Structure formats: structure tokens, C-alpha cells
Amino acid sequence: MMQDYVVFVGINIVLAWSVYVILLAGSLSFANGGFMAIGAYVSGVLTVKFGVPLVLAALAAGVAAGAIGVLVGFPALRTRGIYLMLVTVGVTVSVKAVIESIDYVGGIQGFGGMVGTTQWHVVALVAMVGCGLWALSKSPLQRILDAVREDELSAASLGINPVHVKLVCFGAGAFLAAVAGSFYAHYLIHVAPDQFGIVLSVFIVLYAVLGGTNNLWGPPIGAAIMTLIPEFVRGLESWRPTAFGIIILGLLLIRPDGLLAFRSITARARGIFVTKRA
Amino acid sequence: MLVEQLINGVVLGSMYALIAQGYTLIFGVLDKLNFAHGEVFMLGGFVCLASIALGASLPVAILVAAIISGLLGLMIEFVGFRKFRSPDAHITAALSSFAIGLVIIDLSQKVWGAEPVALTLPGTLQTATVSIAGLNIVVLRLAILVISLLLMFVLYGVVVKTSLGRRIRAVAESPAKAALFGINVTRVNQQVFFIASAMSGLAGLALAVRTGYANTDVGFTFGLKALAIMAIGGMGDLRGALIGGLLVGVLEALAFQWGLGQLADVFVWLFMIVILLVRPAGLFGTLISKDVRA
Fold first, then answer.
1. What does the pLDDT read at residue A37?
2. By CA distance, what is B83's nearest residue in A?
3. Exposed, middle or buried by CB within 10 Å (0-12, 13-18, 19+), for B168?
4. Against a cut of 0.95, is the pTM above it?
């Protein structure tokens, strides 16, 4: 039981970070559920059909999803943010439909036989990604990302190529989501395309946004809370989606910037600027 | 056979277009995506089902569905969008409307169950056919096509010709400037939500009547497709939504004709990506964002 909590909370934390990484450069991705599916299936095929070790398979799956992410992201990132958001919705829907139509991986029935994830894999993954992101937040790279997110035009005038920055972030997010998906599949033993629908993608974004996306620690808090809340409203079993929806709404209305929105000097300054202009 | 499929495609497309116009109207005015829009569409079918079960005639059911969907739209605006009006709140507004959608789906499943519910109209309305140029066409489909086209033309007329339309366009251009000219921006937002949601509810009713089932799943399947259609047409553009809807409907019908029905869901999105590659703002859109205009 405890192991379940650790694994699912850990995987959701990495997923929330995968959205956070993409948000760092100012784009929003509803494709991470799709990338997670790619990770789950690619690594699953590698371990089950070719006997590749789990960690290696997870990395390979991550690279594959990252490549697909860059491929899809490239045309989409040239346009406005909201179009990218729609393209990412399309990615998730398409990945699901394509997997369903491939008989080699079981089609609509799903694919099984993946084993091997322990809680230590997940803990190590969370620790590694966390350290990496923390190092990033202390490095000059963070300021490049901040510049691109807050004002693309000014960033471009300083010699930063916003499209490249966004693309790298998009690929990195896809990589993280796919690695998380690999461990997820190898914990559950059996996965089906249905599990990776658009709802999952939206929930991943919710983890990040509810926790707060302007600092590194918001997404994991959001992921942990959102994973554990359903466990504690067990009594409301049959009313779960409604209760969940209302809790989400309440959180968004009370803290629209997320639960942990503290590194917000730029955001606050921007807020004043916006009210003045509006 | 091919012609029949094409007609089916156009009818389907007109329903897509009705939903997409709602999306595009809301997006044009608020610059925000309303993820609960698909669920209003879904509920339209069930409201029709309920009112007919209570003994209402079809015209009354249509009226009831339009009004209830419109009121639901007002509720969505109040809960999900009123507080998130700043240009930075794209994500928050999208997610809050998504949460409302979740609640709507869950509550409807509580009332009507997760399985499709049969909706049979009295009389032969659902099966009657008419023969045109050697083709047997279900009258109902023609009626749906004509009525949705009519609705869309009326909406276009309202937006282009009336004073309400001028207020809507002013707010779409810049809420701040519209407010300076004495326009009640909140009121316009409410009007837009009412109109868009009523149209979406009617589309849902049309789908339920045409297929003979009301289904709690359609909010996601149709709603998301309509979102892609809006992007294909160009966001905030009513003509784009109409033409995009018809195009996608026909494309899907052709996909079924060629035995690719399984991948029909993917086509819409591929089509959208291709269109966005060629025209980054959709068929009729412009790339100038509201942030730049304000």
C-alpha cells in the first residue's frame, strides 16, 4: 500500500515537472499524457519483446518521445501559444488513436508483461530530476528561460532564439513524461490506450498549475496533494469526480497562481504593469 | 453511395460548425478557451430527452434546450471566467472550465447513467425519407443542415449588423477601450456565453435526435474536435468555424468511405497541424494577438 503511494506520487511529481519544464519557456502542453503513453509502450516493447533492461529501455523511450516532441513542436512553436496548446491536445488524441490501431502492441486491449519498477527507481528518478531542476534554477540558463517566458520580443532582441529555447524545453518535457510513463507501465504490469487520454494530460497540467508554476517546488506539492486527495475522499467514492472538480475550482479561485506562488517578484511587477495598461 | 456519404459529412459538419462557432465566439471576445463548452453540447441532448419524456413536443423541447444551455453558459461564465479575466489567466481559465466540465459530466452520469440513452421521437420524424434526384435522404438530416446553417447566418447577421454585435466586436477588439466607451463588458461577456452555449446545446440536441441516442461521452469527442475545427478556421472567426466544420465533416465521411474510420479522430488533428503549418493563424485568422492590440 505504502509502496503504491510512493510510486504514484513520485511518478505524478515527475509528470508535473515535465509540464513545468515546458511552462518554463512559456508554452503549455496537453501532450504529456501522450508522451507518457509513448514512453510506456516503447519501453514496454523493448523490455518484453527484446529483453532490454528497464532503465535502459526507459531512457530509450524518453529519447524517442523527446524526438517526437521536437518534431511536433517545431511547426507549432512558430505560432501563438494557444495554437501550440491545441496541437498538443491533438498529439494526445492522435497517439491514443494510433496505439489503438496497432495490433502489435495489443490494440485497444492494451499491452502487458512489463515488470520491474520498484519504489527506489521512482525515488531516485524524483531525486535526480529535482536536483537537475534545482541546479537549473541556480544557473544562468534559468534567466534565459525567464526572459523567453516573460517577453519573447525582448529576449530575441538580446540574441536569444525563443523558438530554440522553447523547443529544447518541449523536448525535455516530453523526455521526462516518457521516462515517468515507462516506470508507470512497469509498475502496473498492464497498460491500455484508454489510460492515456486527454483527461490524464489535463490532470498533469492541473498538478503543476495547482501547485504553482512560478517556482520549482509548486508542481510536486500540487502532484502530491492531487494524488492523495482522492485517497482521502474515499467515503465520497461515487461522488469523486464531482468533489474533485469542485475542489479544483475552489483551489483555482482561492489561489489562482497556485498554492506555492512565492518567487513572484517578476509576476507581481508584471501584474502592476498589466493593471496600469488595462 | 459516395454522394450519400458526402451528405452525411455535410450534416455532421454543420453540427461541428455550430459548436465551433460557440468556441470561436467566446475565444474571440474573451481570448480564453472554454473547455466546458463540449459538455454544454452534451447536455443539450439530455435536456431534449428529459423534456420529451415529460411530454413536451419537439419545438418546446428545442426551446427548453436552448434556454437551459444558455443559462448553463451564464453559470460557466460566472464560476469559471469572471475571476480570470486578465490576459495572463489563459491557463487558469482553461483549467477552471475543464473542472466545471468534469462536474457536469459526472452529474449527468448520475442522472442518466454512463450508457447511451435511447431518444425516440413520436411519429416518423426520425425515419422519414425524401427522394431527391434518385437519392433517399432522411428528412431529419436535411432539416438539421438547414436549421444549423440558418442559425449560423442569423448569428453572423447579429454580430455584423446589430448594436449587440457592435458591442461584441468592440469588446473583442479591446475590453479596456470598450469599457471606456461605456460598454458594460461583463454584460457583453454574459450575452456571448448565453448565445454560444444555446447554439452548442442545440447542436447537441440535433446530434441526439439524429443518432437516436443521448450520450454522456460526446462532450469529449465532439467538443475536442470542434476545438480543432476552430483552429483550422482561424480563432475568433465565424466564417472560419463554418467552413472548417463542413470541411472536417466531409473529410471524416470520406475517411469512413475509404475504410479508415478507425483513424477518423486523427485526421482532424493532422488536418489542423497541416493547416497551421501553411497558415499559422488558420484559414481566416490573423496573428495579431489581443495583447499587442490592447
1. 94
2. A253
3. buried
4. no
